[in-house]
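Lecture notes, unit on binding sites. The following record was shown on slide 14. It pairs a sequence with S-adenosylmethionine.
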Amino acid sequence: MVRITTEHNGKLVDWDPYKSKLGAALQKKINIDLRKDDYVLYLGASTGTTVFHVSKRCKGVFAVEIAPRVIRELVFVAEENDNIVPILEDANHPERYPDVFCSWLFQDVAQKNQVEIFIKNFQTFTPRLGILVIKARNVNSTKRPDLVFKQCEEELKTHFRIIERKNLEPYQKDHMLFVVRKL
Ligand SMILES: C[S@@+](CC[C@H](N)C(=O)[O-])C[C@H]1O[C@@H](n2cnc3c(N)ncnc32)[C@H](O)[C@@H]1O
């Protein structure tokens, strides 16, 4: 495993692939094309573990999270990193976010309609690049994960050009990450 770190207040913080899907993807050598001048719309921000690492590599992160209890932790992270904007909202409703601009969309929400949410947000904000994490069990807990991934990919292909796909094993079980651009 390669050590990937982020500098914060003079200290190095490890980007743990077991705690972050994007961290797992980086360990698996995915090209994420995140630029210093990118604004990121991050759906499923949770307590901000991955948001923190992303925020140090771009201009700003609009971090959407639906759970009030969880977003409290994210607010603490945002207090120390002033380019993170926590948004307490449901990713099913991009029209409700404050006025945001993004060139990079990242989604990691544990929901059955993960692909639908991603398409809706991508179409609303038309980023340069989109990254979607699929957790097979959330989409269909009785179907084989490889079949769930295939079904999601077919759906994505009707809207996007798929640049890369990566199974996140052994760091994240039954997770697939797709990198897409618009057709
Ligand atoms: C797997 S966790 C995300 C972990 C995070 N990406 C990280 O790496 O630190 C999924 C998060 O998505 C949030 N979530 C689920 N449905 C959502 C929705 N409709 N809108 C916004 N957030 C949602 C959950 O509350 C949870 O915090």
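Take-home: The domain at 5-182 is CATH 3.40.50.150 (Rossmann fold).
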